[in-house]
Design a protein that fits this description.
The structure is a single chain. This protein is of the alpha/beta class. The chain has a single domain, classed as TIM Barrel (Alpha-Beta Barrel), CATH 3.20.20. It has nine helices and twelve strands. The strands form three sheets. The chain has an eight-stranded parallel barrel with strand order 1-2-3-4-7-8-9-12. It has a two-stranded antiparallel sheet with strand order 5-6. Strands 10-11 form a two-stranded antiparallel sheet. It is globular, with a radius of gyration of 18 Å. Fe (ii) ion binds next to loops.
């Protein structure tokens, strides 16, 4: 079972992650869309990585909230990829990024309402039936709320229960949303069904103005986000935690320091669980 601290397997990082003298995270995470069906040099790199690391998959284009029909050909490829690389955890965003067959390069939030709960939970169930496994859905960062009938935590809880799926809890996204939409991030996490969390994400963000921060995955993690992770770990069973870093890469040693800081938090909270 995957545990410990992982790092996103990005093309800018592959060399250092495959280098035998580098610090090795416990696992790597990748977007299957970026790697499926690749041959040549990148196919070889993926095979090499799979020999060194357990892999988790974080999808980009399933568009769970879309009104369009699910893309079954795409799901067939996903199923094959998950099998080929023995992927334990496959996560996707609680959002939509396609509409009327147009694929948009943004993850759009869903309206927090009963109709959306029904729609997305049904699609998650269909995906899970097809893949013959549970998937984890991620709380995304968003900057506009669309006609909410309920708060976001209730929305996520209802979907998770109705679809009987797992959650990917992105701790930085909670912090970013709580700041931008002025709610308490601790209350938000407390209201989630934490027993469904299969994996967590940690990342950095950028403060753009006094009232706005942007989820960039391009900065160092700030202390309040580490503190939120620590508090969350006290309330749940061990899960793997991934450091997401997608651009503005620092020296690898800085990412190692961040992973080790996360690891200390996990160890402090979950030592007994690790030992058993
Ligand atoms: Fe994330």
């Amino acid at each position: 079972m995957i545990n410990g601290v992982g790092l996103g397997f990005r093309r800018d990082l592959y060399k250092i992650l495959l280098d035998s003298s580098s610090y090795r995270p416990s696992f790597i995470e990748l977007a299957p869309e970026n790697w499926m069906g690749l041959g040549g040099q990148w196919g070889k790199i993926l095979k090499e990585a799979a020999e060194l690391y357990p892999i988790t998959c974080h999808g980009l284009s399933l568009s769970l909230g879309s009104p369009d029909p699910l893309d079954w050909d795409f799901l067939k490829q996903i199923k094959q990829f998950l099998k080929e690389y023995s992927i334990e955890i496959y996560s996707e965003h609680l959002s939509f990024n396609s509409c009327d067959n147009a694929h948009l390069y943004e993850l759009f939030p869903l309206p927090f309402c009963d109709e959306a709960i029904k729609h997305v939970a049904e699609r998650i169930r269909q995906v899970q039936d097809f893949l013959e496994r549970k998937i984890a859905i991620e709380n995304i960062s968003y900057y506009t709320v669309i006609e909410p009938q309920m708060d976001e935590a209730s929305f996520i809880r209802s979907i998770a229960e109705e679809a009987d799926c797992q959650l990917l809890l992105d701790v930085n996204n909670v912090y970013v949303n709580a700041f931008n939409h002025q709610y308490n991030p601790y209350d938000f996490i407390e209201a989630l069904p934490l027993e469904r969390v299969a994996i967590m994400h940690m990342a950095g963000h950028k403060q753009k103005s006094e009232h706005l921060i942007i989820d960039t995955h391009g900065e160092a993690i700030i202390d309040p986000v580490f503190e939120l992770l620590d508090w969350t770990c006290q309330r749940m069973s061990p899960t793997p935690v991934l450091l997401e870093r997608d651009f503005n890469y620092p020296e690898y040693s800085e990412l190692v320091t961040e992973m080790q800081t996360i690891e200390k938090i996990l160890d402090r909270n979950w030592t007994l669980a690790h030992a058993s």
